[in-house]
Amino acid sequence: QVQLVESGGGWVQPGGSLRLSCKASGSFASMNTMGWYRQSPGKTRELVATHNTRPFTFYANSVKGRFTISRDNAKNTAYLQMTDLKPEDTATYYCHLLESLPRRGIYWGQGTQVTVSS
After folding, report:
1. In Å, what is the CA distance from 90 to each residue of 22, 102, 116?
2. pLDDT higher than threshold 80 for residue 54
3. Which residues contact 41 (CB under 8 A, 6 or more apart)?
4. Coil, helix or strand at residue 80
5. Mean pLDDT of the 2-30 span
6. How does pLDDT run across 89-112, given as a tens digit for each residue?
7. Which residues contact 42 (CB under 8 A, 6 or more apart)?
8. Which of 41, 45, 60, 40 is nearest to 96 (CA)?
9. Under DSSP, is residue 79 helix (H, G, I), strand (E, B) or coil?
């Protein structure tokens, strides 16, 4: 059974920084894409950033230049370094893993809360 566990969320003032971590465990394809989504109350879940094993990265326009996604394949861990945080970044952040073909399994973490306010 695949499990994703996030950590690193919390409260920070505008302009501050946080680093989120996502540890994957269980049985899953070594070729995969890990990433981060976020969701605020009353809004749909949105893609923040992804990083596959090729590697290839993708960032939402709202976080480009401020967030950096990375991964340590030996540790099965993905990271999201967030800088210059803004109040609009406040959300629950979810780790995501998508297996490459042929299985194409999808897995989610439980989420970690990020609150940006003064």
Report:
1. 18, 36, 5
2. no
3. none
4. strand
5. 96
6. 999 999 999 998 888 899 999 999
7. none
8. 45
9. strand
Q: Which amino acid is at 2?
A: V
Residue 59 and residue 11: Cα distance in Å, rounded?
23
| Strand ranges for 3-111 from DSSP E | 3-7, 10-12, 18-25, 32-39, 46-52, 57-59, 67-72, 77-82, 91-99, 106-108
Question: Mean pLDDT across the stretch 7-13?
Answer: 97
CB 35 within 8 A of CB 41: no
Cα four-point dihedral sign 56, 62, 67, 71? negative
48 within 8 A of 80, measured Cβ to Cβ: yes
Handedness of CA 49, 6, 12, 80 (dihedral sign): negative
Measured CA to CA, the distance from residue 60 to residue 70 in angstroms comes to 15
